[in-house]
Amino acid sequence: MKIGAVFILIFLISSVCADVFSTTSGQGEISIGGISGNQTGFFTGIPAIASSTPSPAPSGGGGGGGAGGILILPIQNLTVSPSSFNLPASVGITSSASVVLENTGNSDIDLIVSVSGIGDIVKFNQTSFIIPANKSKILNFIIEPPDNAGIYSGKIFFSSGNRKTSIPIVINVGEGQSLFDVFVKIPQSYRQITRGQNLVSNISLVQKGAQKETDVTLQYTIQDFEDNVYYSDLETIAVLDEKNYQKEFNTSSLSPGDYIIGAKAIYSGGIATASSTFTVLAAGNETAGEISQKEGFFRGIASSIGNAFKTVGTFFKNVFGAVASLAEKLFEDIKGNFRAVAIILGALLWVVALFFIVRFRKKIFKPKQRINVWRYGEGISKKDPSESQ
Known about the structure:
Layout: H1 2-20, E1 21-24, E2 29-32, E3 35-36, E4 78-81, E5 85-90, E6 95-103, E7 109-116, E8 122-124, E9 128-131, E10 136-143, E11 150-160, E12 163-176, E13 180-185, E14 192-194, E15 199-207, E16 214-223, E17 229-239, E18 242-249, E19 257-267, E20 270-281, H2 288-330, H3 338-359, H4 361-365, E21 374-376, E22 379-381
Parallel strand pairs: 5-12, 14-20
Antiparallel strand pairs: 1-2, 2-3, 4-6, 6-10, 7-9, 7-11, 8-10, 11-12, 12-20, 13-15, 15-18, 16-17, 16-19, 19-20, 21-22
């Protein structure tokens, strides 16, 4: 057992010596424990945590449900008009729209445009440009609807350096014969509601063409700007000429954030869609901003812990790096990398181990004295019975 333990220990030490210290061939980059010098952290199991800076949500719309994610400061001196889009579209028909960007500052703004969620539907011909100081720019984009009718949502991002400004966009895609128009309107007093408060919406169905009573199936949905659906329901309504009604929706399952209430009218020969946006605030005196600050606090704690580990890891990495650099200078005559040194160290360990095995072989291999025991009657004797004869 002792011999086996000694050999295992020597093997492990020699393996570690060979693997821990090495250099990147031709670059002189020191690597410690498989972690190269150009990496940001020593403990690779700890994810990098970016710092978060709260910012107000863009006016006239916003992000998906809840207050999660890292908040980014908006672009200074940039005005976007309109502040949100809610556009109709039809399957197979390409349409266009435009957004006005105004630079109200005294310096130029470099902008990059991108679309999240519906980048395959909303497309900009120009995605990188400069707006001079005190100038404005009209930016056009096209809408290529998908093959299926529905309500599609996302965001348009305008980025400049490490700042971003975003506006929400909703595309209401219909298909088939245009026999009905559907409208969804939220009263101004219900544009912002507290969590748990019922959402009130006014829905209108207007018949076009021949005036005859028609059954229309209404599909209601509540979704966020990342296409997550939180509510869906169906009902069938008979419509002649026009139908106006009010409908309430429970919001107790929604986290603070911005949402879309949508209606899809399904009838014989076609589908019509419409939607409107609303915001859910936290219940009681707590606002969505305060919720965000609390979540930011816990993210800050996680970030601090991560940074602490990163600092400790960097310290050890620097220490081992200094040791490795010193060893490299001491063995500068050795060609190749530190693996050669590790092999030499491993060989020396084997020599030392063999010396100790030879030196203390008598103690290591000394056999134990055997004692034979014979039992006579009720007593025990350690004497061999043959000796008494």
